[in-house]
Amino acid sequence: MLQELADRTAIVDAVIAYATALDTRDWETLGGLFTGDARWEYSGSGERLCGPDAIIARIRTSLERFDATHHLNGNHVVTVHGDEAEHTCYYQAQHVRLGLPDGEKFLGGGRYDDRLRRTPDGWRFAHRRITGVWSEGNPAVITS
């Protein structure tokens, strides 16, 4: 029971580290959170990537155009099966681009569905699926 609690805490810590790395633009830390064969997909867009380098390149290209982002996670559900785990949580992601005429903010909410693997360096994402559920604000913040 104690090991399961420690694993659950470490998995949620990895999820929080992901959000923090996004907002601080810490690409090295972000890349280190994935297994070498990790997969990443954005549900609804059909976009699927394999490997930390491709995943980080895509995320970096997307986020570097913003003046700021702020990712929050909640409602974590973790199931551990030995050295494999499943995790789901909700997210809210604020995106800011200053100077846009119709508004500088775009807020999106959705869900992360993850599979993680225990490695010698701790729990790492083997697969992350992002599903957007709702949004509000100026879509030009994220599209232009």
Automatic annotation (TrEMBL):
Positions of the SnoaL-like domain: 3-129
Pfam families, A to Z: SnoaL_4
Domain of life: Bacteria
Gene3D superfamilies, per the entry: 3.10.450.50
InterPro entries: NTF2-like_dom_sf, SnoaL-like
Protein's UniProt name: Nuclear transport factor 2 family protein
Species: Nonomuraea composti
